[in-house]
Write a structure and sequence with these properties.
Layout: E1 6-12, H1 16-22, E2 32-36, H2 43-59, E3 63-67, H3 74-82, E4 89-93, H4 96-103, E5 115-123, E6 125-129, H5 138-147, E7 153-156, H6 162-174, E8 179-182, H7 186-195, E9 200-204, H8 205-213, E10 218-222, H9 225-235
Parallel strand pairs: 2-3, 2-4, 7-8
Antiparallel strand pairs: 1-4, 1-5, 6-9, 6-10
Length: 238
């Protein structure tokens, strides 16, 4: 499997003038909003809530996550781009931020209207299936998928999301035909995978690990060769 690393970035709408003015203030003086452009339950949203909790604890100020969904994340991105440039509107985003600006019509400049300030996490993708699917390895899954072209469904956080692209790349590389079911976030897609409505998914390890460890999902592979050795205890839980 090709490496597909998801970098989650905390981004801050900022200008040089606003930054200089803030240096003289005991920032933050009021609650700060962290905008999550993806659905609750996905990796990006989960990381945003962890960040908000730690910032609130360490700075003794209120940091609140607010979900603004739609348009493959562009609704939330656009909202942040147009917000007041005073440091009180942050954006937590993943690699889908750069993808969205290429495949969706947008009304903001992704390079100049929103500035990255910190990379918060680096994670890998897991290829997982519902336990009812009679496969325990990537090789077995590919063999089964080739006997059922177009009959196995996979979910993603929407058309053009990094999860969608990762699974399509896997399908192309392995020569199988899968049916894509887009959702308004990887969280809702995972719910249907857990219920058996979907058969397979490739998504961020952060959100999938708890379900694999509880045996509600089966992990077939991980996207990083470097991480395989460390992940062997996890991947053996089949």
């Amino acid at each position: 499997m090709r490496t597909a690393t998801l970098s989650l970035l905390a981004m801050l709408l900022w200008t040089t003038q606003a930054g200089a003015a803030q240096d003289a203030l005991p920032y933050p003086e009021r609650p700060v909003r962290i905008i999550s452009a993806l659905a609750v339950g996905g990796a990006v949203d989960s990381v945003g809530r962890l960040i908000a909790g730690k910032l609130s604890e360490n700075l003794q100020r209120q940091f609140v996550v607010e979900n603004r969904l739609g348009g493959g994340g562009t609704v939330g991105y656009s909202y942040v781009a147009k917000a007041a440039r005073d440091g009180y509107t942050l954006l937590v985003a993943g690699s889908g931020y750069t993808i969205a600006s290429v495949i969706y019509p947008i009304q903001y400049d992704p390079l100049n209207d929103i500035a990255p300030i910190a990379q918060t996490t680096n994670s890998y993708y897991l290829l997982v299936t519902h336990p009812a699917l009679p496969v325990k390895t990537v090789k077995e899954f590919v063999a089964l998928a080739k006997t059922k072209p177009g009959q196995l469904n996979f979910g993603s956080g929407g058309v053009g999301s990094s999860v969608h692209f990762a699974m399509e790349m896997f399908a192309m590389a392995s020569g199988v035909s899968l049916t894509h079911i887009p959702y308004k976030g990887s969280g809702p897609a995972q719910i249907d995978l857990l219920s058996g409505e979907l058969q397979v998914m490739m998504a961020n390890a952060i959100s999938l690990l708890p379900h694999v460890q509880s045996r509600r999902l089966r992990a077939l592979g991980i996207s990083s060769p470097q991480a395989i050795r460390k992940s062997m205890p996890l991947l053996s839980q089949r």
